[in-house]
Amino acid sequence: MKIYQGGILQPIPGQAIYITCNLRRAIELERAIEVLQNFDTDNIVIGIGQSFLDRFDRSIPGLKTMPEFASSHIKLTSTPSDLWIWLRSDDRGDLYHHSRRVINRLSPAFEITGSVEAFRYAEGRDLTGYEDGTENPDGEAAVKAAICSSEDLAVNGSSFVAVQRWQHDLDTFDTFPAEKQDYMIGRRRSDNEELDDAPASAHVKRTAQESFDPQAFLLRRSMPWSQELRAGLMFVAFGKSFNAFEAQINRMLGNEDDVIDALFQFSRVLSGAYYWCPPVSQGQLNLSAIGHKPEL
Ligand code: HEM
């Protein structure tokens, strides 16, 4: 029996919508929980923010508000919300109808604060043309990296997700010669080969998961987004805690050795937040970790 939200482990879909919501004023916890319990957890991944828990004086060990990560040159915004929803489909029309139904069901307890549409590019590339996800852990290793294992059944099977919306300046990126672009990423776009002689600022040198102590494995499920002429990557990384993400983002910012990730030369963070993705029991979200406090 599956104890985690199925969409976390599945490959990225062809189409997606990310929705952020806040609790309505004066809504009761029982009502919010009732609304969240009606979802099919294969086509939708749901995350709960710290501000949701604060409202009802609850906590989940390991969940917190995303800090405003910064170095001397760069500051990354943190834009928390109460609820995050990743709707997944391979058909644009089905996705639209699904999102309409989900929003209607959420509406008694939540108001929508934002939505972003995303898509798979070719076999899973970022809009710069580079394959994204190559070094993701797979199979059992993916479960180990992304899913919490605990004797407490209320958190066993849950996951922590870091979400960051990056906007690329692709006109600037296009001005760099192809070889420089490869060295910025640390892989060759044409055949995805890793470049051993890439500089320390190359993105895959910054984030090489085995190079951290302890090793910092993440399950990345990012997807490109575009809106009118703006575009970029919705970076989405699941972990059994936020530790691996924090080690990586700090190194990308140069906080370890003053070397800043080359990605910052053409991309910037528009929004970012942390969420806890509850476990699943019999196909429904298991929200017992935030349910009623037992009577004393
Ligand atoms: C503009 C945003 C980003 C873009 C376009 C991007 C793109 C890429 C690409 C093309 C790769 C190489 C292929 C692969 O292994 O997936 C990669 C690897 C990776 N990225 Fe990113 N990435 C972005 C942001 C981030 C952030 C914010 C983090 C974590 C804080 C991150 C963590 C990683 C990790 C862990 C790897 C694999 C490194 C390894 O073990 O070899 N990325 N990324």
Structural class based on helices, strands and sheet pairing: alpha+beta
The total of beta strands comes to 11
Bound molecules: protoporphyrin IX containing FE
Largest sheet: 5 strands, antiparallel
| Secondary-structure element order, N to C | HEHEHEHEHEHHHEEEHEEE
> What fraction of the residues are assigned to beta strands by DSSP?
15-25%
Distance between the termini: 33 Å
Poorly predicted sequence stretches spanning 5 or more consecutive residues: none
Gyration radius (Cα, Å) is 19 Å
Percent helix: 10-25%
Q: What is the overall silhouette?
A: globular
Summed over residues and divided by their number, the pLDDT gives a mean of 96
Report the total helices. Answer: 9
Brief summary:
The protein has 296 residues and is α+β, with helices and mostly antiparallel strands.
